[in-house]
Predict the 3D structure of the following.
Amino acid sequence: MPCVSADGSLTPVAAQVLGALAAPDASGTAEAVARAAVLPVYRVRGALRELEQAGLIEETGGHKMLTAVGRSKLAAAVAKR
C-alpha cells in the first residue's frame, strides 16, 4: 500500500504515522509510533519503510525522524483537513 498518492498527497495511514513522528514526545520506534497512531505495528513498519524510501523520514540512531520534506507534506495534509 503506497503512502503517497498519485497526486503526491499523503494517504491517511502515512499522515497518521508522520503525525505520530512529529509529536514532541515521539521516540521514533515502530512500536511507539504504532501506539501513538493507533495502528497495528506491522502496518506502521511497512509505512515507515515506504516513507523512508520516499525521503519523508530518515533514521538516526535507530529512531525515525521527519525530514524537511516530510514536515512539508504533513503540513499540507493537515491543512487539507
